Write the structure tokens for this entry.
Amino acid sequence: MAVAALISTGAMAQDKKESPNKPVFTVVKENKITSIKDQNRSGTCWAYATLAYFESEILKKTGKTYDLCESFVANKTYMDRADQVVRLHGDCQFAQGGSCHDVYYCLANYGICPESAMPFPGSLYGDSLNNFNEFFEVLTPYVNAISKSTAKKISTQWRVGFQGILDAYLGECPQNFTYQGKQYTPKSFAASLGLDMDDYVTITSYTHHPFYTAFAVEVQDNWRNPLSWNLPMDEMMRIIDNAVKEGYTVAWGGDVSEEGFTRQGLAYAVDTKAAQSLSGSDMARWLKLTKVQKTNMIDSLGCKVPEIVPTQKQRQERFDSWELTDDHGMLIYGIAKDQNGKEYYMVKNSWGETGDYKGTWYMTKAFIAANTMDYMVNKNAIPKDIRKKLGI
């Protein structure tokens, strides 16, 4: 059976490799980005995606390339998040995840340092990259023990102990460091990057709040409760298109748990009923397939995958029913077309140089429209008519 499985897997891989449906991409617009990183076994996509975004902003404004430190952001953010959990006596979530705003908040309030100013991810505990399994098995019960304490008064020493754990696994955030021959503090280094922190806004699209107003998107990792501008779906998408065409990138957060998001570097908003017909699979068989098998089938269909047409109503229904989740952050940096003329966004992931496109994912516009939770963008990338409606 094991041999048969290996033969079957090999045949599937061979078929997929030789599939005539594999997309052939032509770049329409590609903006400059920094190198692909690997978050490995850590729930820090939010830090990698948003620092990649700010690195691209710096690259656009100054032409300089930086490698900003995710561990610095994580260290500061996890302490702030633990503070909130303790203040609320545990009536909120402590978790690895976060949002674009956490990185923005860190830059604006604590500064930042280059990757070289802190230990390389994983190196403090003998790993080659981040692995938060043991780290959070220590952190989480620590926070729970303090936040759920029955004591009438807690001491401030819990913060000292918690900071010690953060420093042990992530490295101590430097108070001073040297970069390219100059001395900096984290705040002075952030100030030297050429960023205007008033330029950045977040965008979303739901109907349970009025359009052209701002609200805090109700997801657990949006724990600082920053406000996002609420726009109709078509305007939410028009901003992304305009941003890319004007040379900007977009820090995207959304749902990649859908079957149309493949490990090979593609993402489609799959019309499953139509896909079953094209793949020769009836509904009964489709429902019995594992997620991996469905993804392999979608991969084999490639550029011929039939897609749904996302709607505002559908977005809202999926959000309210917990189908549309906030589970990954990535960086949109370009637009490409396949051999059939369908447009995709070029998206930088943080899983290393994996997939068929060495760490880039090609995600259709339908997938992005259907699965966006929110995104951060430079307000100067927003079309003038939309900016006027928002008053920014």
Notes: The mean pLDDT is 92. The two ends are 63 Å apart (CA to CA). The longest strand covers residues 328-337. The CA atoms of residues 332 and 353 lie 16 Å apart.
